[in-house]
């Protein structure tokens, strides 16, 4: 379901993630949840809850502090041309954080 994930939490009160979701998986999830496949549906609480549930089910044996509490979901995978991954397909963490700075601030808003 997930193409790429970056976990954020250093010097933060809890872990969050920015996730690129595979397009076909998104269509299947939207159908399963009964929501529009429109990109704006990615921001709905129902979609975010379903995705966080899937993530945290994989982390069941991890301690509570290692759970992902909030996530920002995107459909556009990160690529070399966009400058978010290296030619060896490693994530450019600082560039991704810079690109999604406003979304990260929103993930921690209110805490």
What this model shows, in words?
The protein is α+β, with helices and mostly antiparallel strands and 111 residues long. Helices cover 36% and strands 19% of the residues. It contains 4 helices and 3 strands. The protein has helices spanning 23-33, 45-58, 93-99, 101-108, and strands at residues 2-8, 15-21, 68-74. A 3-stranded mixed β-sheet has the order 1-2-3, with helices on both faces.
What's the SSE blueprint?
Blueprint: E1 2-8, E2 15-21, H1 23-33, H2 45-58, E3 68-74, H3 93-99, H4 101-108
Parallel strand pairs: 2-3
Antiparallel strand pairs: 1-2
What's the number of extended β-strand segments? 3
Number of domains: 1
Low-confidence stretches: none
Which range does the strand content fall in? 15-25%
Q: Span between N and C termini?
A: 29 Å
Shape: globular
| Count of alpha and pi helical runs | 4
Strand count, sense and closure of the main sheet? Answer: 3 strands, mixed
- Estimate percent helicity: 25-40%
Radius of gyration: 14 Å
Mean pLDDT: 92
Helix and strand content put the structural class at: alpha+beta
Task: Write the element-wise H/E pattern from the N-terminal end onward.
Answer: EEHHEHH
Outline:
The chain is α+β, with helices and mostly antiparallel strands and 111 residues long. It contains four helices and three strands, in the order E-E-H-H-E-H-H. A three-stranded mixed β-sheet has the order 1-2-3, with helices on both faces.
What descriptive keywords fit this protein?
alpha+beta; 111 residues; 36% helix; 19% strand
